[in-house]
Write a structure and sequence with these properties.
homodimer, CblAdoTrfase_CobA (chains A, B), P-loop_NTPase (chains A, B), EC 2.5.1.17 (chains A, B), transferase (chains A, B), corrinoid adenosyltransferase activity (chains A, B)
Chain lengths: ~200, ~200
Amino acid sequence: MPKGQPNVVPQDGLTTRQRRNRPLVAVHTGVGKGKSTAAFGLALRAWNQGWPIGVFQFVKSAKWKVGEERALKVLGDSGEGGSVTWHKMGEGWSWIQRNVQDGEMSSEAAAREGWEQVKRDLAAETYRLLVLDEFAYPMHWGWVDVEEVVAVLRDRPGTQHVVITGRNAPQQLIDAADLVTEMSKVKHPMDAGQKGQKGIEW
Amino acid sequence: MPKGQPNVVPQDGLTTRQRRNRPLVAVHTGVGKGKSTAAFGLALRAWNQGWPIGVFQFVKSAKWKVGEERALKVLGDSGEGGSVTWHKMGEGWSWIQRNVQDGEMSSEAAAREGWEQVKRDLAAETYRLLVLDEFAYPMHWGWVDVEEVVAVLRDRPGTQHVVITGRNAPQQLIDAADLVTEMSKVKHPMDAGQKGQKGIEW
């Protein structure tokens, strides 16, 4: 529901308009499907507003989410909405010198490199919507410090919305977020012996 | 997870490949956010596969989801992926003669008209992915007969995936669906007095 009355009116010294436009940290977690697809669906709205969008894909495989990536790149290049910049951990991150790959960066080091770039981009206000896809995992595994993430998000300048996806979002992140949705599996085709298929899973 | 091993291998006489490509009925339900955004995120994958996509928006307001609509239209018109056809109940459905509006069609009648068109398009195999956005409501309210929906979906020809969104999806639909995700609200900005904002809610 896009419209509605809030449940409480906080005593925060903000006007309704100021409060309405406060940037959000959103988290999509849980074991069900739809966490990333909903984040990319949200990116369509941001694109329509003309916002610069940065996607950071914190997964090892470079092949995941190729459909979303191609669609958002076509949208970004159309010149009719916001720009889209897509960063993939699975390809060793675009800003890292290629010769680093000679030494095969570990997933843990790669996730940390990704987070360092997110911090730089937040400080520089490069984007207005940041999708940190599957970023819950490196926090859950202790590769990236949750307390630092929460502090950096809390102190980020300007009007930057951040969406974080992934199972097992740490409680501290959930406590710090403005919008948290849990996707639960009620039923999945794999339970009935059906494997993933094109157009649906990728 | 796009890859993985199914929990069971059913004795259904199908090869793994046949079973894998069996068309799905997916339902996104629950009171949390992300039901529609995840459906439109899924449409990005279908678009990337070059599939014709039909969206039927079963909501009264013509203004909802303008971001998703514009993005998917730009994608459909890009010629780089599948086509996109977008039908809005809020504008009286495009296929209905405009003079019908003189008599102001009720939401109930409009929802029924939408379902009749979905039936025609399923029979004609017009699309390969159908997004029936907010279609759970007219079923929940008894405007459209759930048993008929389940039978039509069960008997649909060809390879047509159907995604249905909305709170309160009827149990019969859930029983008949292949993939059901419940979006639950863990936390929402409105709980803290923050109303919806552009780029996030629309």
